[in-house]
Specification:
Among the domains are: 53 residues; 135 residues, 2-Layer Sandwich (Heat Shock Protein 90). It contains 13 helices and 7 strands. The chain is α+β, with helices and mostly antiparallel strands. The strands form 2 sheets. A 5-stranded mixed β-sheet has the order 2-4-5-7-6. The protein starts with a helix and ends in a 6-residue tail after the last strand. About 1% of the residues have low confidence.
């Protein structure tokens, strides 16, 4: 891009300076050749420092430009500094020091050949230190950023391995523990039954954590989810899903019989269960599940009648580990948002009086949509 810009400036410069049109076009052509080389050559198959050869070609063009215009170096200095800045962004220090001699010669030799005064020649001893210092500062900052990126990549690999371990290795023994606790609960009475019930609740919480971490890893690793989309009668689908829940709260369904949902059933089930469970856990009944048609979208709303959520918390409810509590870990709503996005919709929280409504939209079906 740097050489492409230089070439375009050379072409533009022909109009105000037609006497030097030939020289300008020659320099512009050289710039375009270097730009094409930078774009088209397979640099990914070479050593990381190989593109630095473009800088050497650039210095040669700078020298040609200064000589062609009789020693006028007005554009040479800034472009030389820009070349050094580009090198500092991409290459190690030895490349920058390796550029010193070619850069110095490309600046000085044309001035000597065009018989410039010692004062003009001495400008090289000001320009070169400035260029190398700028490049070294940029190189140092770029190196720190690359080191930080590599460290973050290692942390991410470690996190992914830890999440996979938790998600997969915890679930198998947890199933055995849950079965044993359920059998013990059936035979226990009094205080033992209450202890078994408490243990089962904590086991369920760990299971939710494992499932949430597994979904988090699936989304993080692929960046998207593959959906098995199909049309489902909305009221029947929502009713079937809510039958799976055993919540001690009043549930109300407000869905028209003629509405149809185009969703992945398993993922929609996950969305609805997460929202209804959250509403029952953190709010108060009745919990109202409604579905309405809003233009080209279906709007699912799960509302509780509890104390609500403060305004400053609502925008970050759907972040990873944004909120949690004794019964949750803060992954449920983040997963809801990711699943909604995978369907082409979105998830938001809206204030109600009383309570709060969690709203998820889905693209509607039918000719109107």
């Amino acid at each position: 891009m740097l050489f492409l810009l230089a070439g375009l400036l050379g072409v533009v410069g022909v109009a105000p300076d037609p006497a030097r049109a030939r020289n300008l076009l020659i320099v512009a052509a050289c710039d375009f050749v270097i730009a094409a080389a930078g774009l088209l050559l397979p640099w990914g198959r070479t050593r990381p420092e190989a593109p630095a050869l473009l800088g050497l070609a650039g210095f040669a063009v700078l020298g040609l430009s200064t000589w062609s215009f009789g020693g006028v170096a007005a554009g040479t200095g800034p472009f030389l500094v820009l070349l050094y800045a580009w090198a500092g962004l991409h290459f190690p220090r030895w490349v920058l020091f390796g550029y010193l001699v070619p850069a110095f010669l490309s600046y000085v030799i044309p001035l000597v050949l065009t018989h410039q005064s010692p004062l003009v020649l001495s400008s090289a001893f000001v320009l070169m230190p400035v260029a190398i210092v700028v490049a070294l500062l940029i190189e140092a900052q770029a190196r720190h950023l690359r080191d930080d990126r590599e460290r973050l990549a290692r942390i991410e690999q470690w996190r992914a391995a830890m999440v996979n371990t938790l998600a997969h290795d915890v679930r198998s023994p947890l199933s055995t523990v849950r079965i044993v606790l359920e059998e013990f609960q059936e035979q226990a009475t009094g205080e033992a039954a209450r202890m078994a019930d408490a243990a089962l609740r904590q086991t369920a919480r760990i299971s939710r954590l494992a499932e949430g971490l597994l979904d988090l890893q699936r989304i993080d690793s692929s960046g998207q989810l593959k959906l098995d989309l199909a049309e489902h009668p909305a009221r029947a689908l929502i009713g079937e899903i809510l039958l799976l829940l055993n919540l001690d709260v009043e549930l109300t369904i407000e869905v028209d019989d003629d509405l149809v949902l185009l969703v992945d059933r398993q993922r929609f089930e996950q969305i609805l269960i997460n929202l209804v469970t959250n509403a029952a856990r953190y709010g108060r009944g009745p919990v109202v599940v409604s579905l309405t048609r809003d233009g080209a979208r279906n709007r699912l709303e799960v509302r509780d009648h509890g104390p609500g959520i403060p305004d400053h918390l609502r925008p970050r409810l759907f972040g990873q580990f944004a909120v949690g509590g004794p019964e949750g870990v803060g992954l449920g709503l983040w997963i809801v948002r990711q699943l909604a996005a995978a369907h082409g919709g979105m998830a938001t929280a809206e204030a109600r009086d009383p309570g709060v409504a969690m709203v998820v939209t889905f693209p509607a079906t039918g000719p109107e949509a």
